[in-house]
């Protein structure tokens, strides 16, 4: 059975496909150019002969980047910040959301109002910097972790979603004598697994791309993150790559080769992992979109 489609519907679908193909090209073509530059020779890049395919193929830039002490330490810092912040942010948000959704929690509305107020109003960058500095976190990796562990938005979504679960599920566990910790991690969170996966992806991508806190808090090169390293090398292509010991000054390699190779190495983990988690992301966003 063939469904009838009106001419207006056909025109709309053609426009939709053309629009998304053009949008895809705007994303893919620059990425292909970055990869091509990173794999091309010095002469090819300097003569502007590189477009979307490598010219005079070589992998010297990747060999230098992946053997760079600064790049490897920045990769380790980024991995630490991403894993620690993502795990603890989700755990804190889920625990706080479960507590606020618990009917036996006296004063839950007051605490919930406090979270809402904190989400809409903040002290600004300068008080935030002074607070971090007052606790002695300046120029430490903890400055990239501790201030970002609480996500009020995640807490609110968890609270609203848990409150909408059938009350009988939690009550049956309470009758069996299960503690709140077991109810949360063995009953509630498995039911919200798609939403947890969505928040995990959003948080991981956000923390993986962290660079501004490094700019205002970190002074030691050994504590840089990948994104800040990229920013530094991109804004200082000559001095930033060679003079500060990020890589040794090699032959037949220019900063553009190294910068584009570093970009590829930085975004590759996210590009590889994201397609496998996309279905959880879409499902989780739909679940989390239900408001009380």
Tell me what the CATH architecture of the largest domain is: Orthogonal Bundle
Fill in the CATH topology of the largest domain.
Answer: MetI-like fold
CATH superfamily of the largest domain: MetI-like
Average pLDDT level: 85
- The 3D shape can be described as globular
Tally the beta strands: 0
Q: Compute the number of structural domains.
A: 2
Structure classification: mainly alpha
What is the chain-wise order of helices and strands? HHHHHHHHHHHHHH
Residues in helices, as a percent range = 55-70%
Number of alpha- plus pi-helical segments: 14
CATH class of the largest domain: Mainly Alpha
Strand fraction: under 5%
Unreliable stretches, pLDDT < 50, 5 or more residues?
288-292
User: How far from one another are the termini?
Assistant: 41 Å
The rounded Rg comes to 24 Å
How many strands, what sense, and barrel or not for the largest sheet? none
């Amino acid at each position: 059975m063939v469904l009838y489609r009106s001419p207006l519907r056909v025109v709309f679908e053609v426009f939709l496909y053309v629009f998304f193909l053009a949008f895809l090209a705007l994303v893919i073509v620059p990425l292909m150019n970055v990869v091509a530059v990173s794999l091309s020779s010095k002469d090819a890049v300097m003569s502007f002969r590189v477009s979307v395919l490598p010219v005079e193929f070589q992998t010297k830039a990747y060999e230098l980047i992946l053997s760079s002490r600064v790049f490897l330490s920045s990769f380790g810092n980024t991995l630490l910040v991403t894993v620690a912040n993502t795990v603890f942010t989700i755990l804190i948000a889920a625990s706080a959301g479960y507590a606020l959704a618990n009917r036996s929690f006296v004063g839950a509305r007051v605490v919930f109002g406090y979270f809402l107020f904190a989400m809409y109003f903040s002290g600004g960058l300068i008080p935030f910097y002074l607070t971090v500095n007052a606790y002695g976190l300046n120029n430490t990796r903890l400055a990239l972790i501790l201030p970002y562990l609480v996500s009020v938005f995640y807490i609110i979504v968890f609270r609203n979603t848990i409150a909408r679960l059938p009350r009988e599920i939690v009550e049956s566990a309470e009758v069996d004598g299960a503690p709140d910790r077991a109810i949360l991690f063995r009953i509630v969170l498995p039911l919200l697994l798609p939403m947890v996966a969505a928040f995990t992806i959003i948080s991981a991508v956000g923390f993986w791309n962290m660079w501004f806190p490094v700019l205002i808090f970190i002074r030691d090169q050994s504590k840089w993150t990948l994104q800040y390293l990229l920013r530094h090398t991109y804004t200082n292509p000559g001095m930033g790559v060679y003079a500060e010991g990020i890589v040794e000054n090699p032959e037949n390699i220019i900063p553009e080769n190294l910068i584009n190779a570093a970009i590829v190495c930085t975004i590759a983990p996210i590009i590889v992992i994201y397609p496998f988690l996309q279905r959880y992301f879409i499902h989780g966003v739909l679940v989390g979109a239900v408001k009380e």
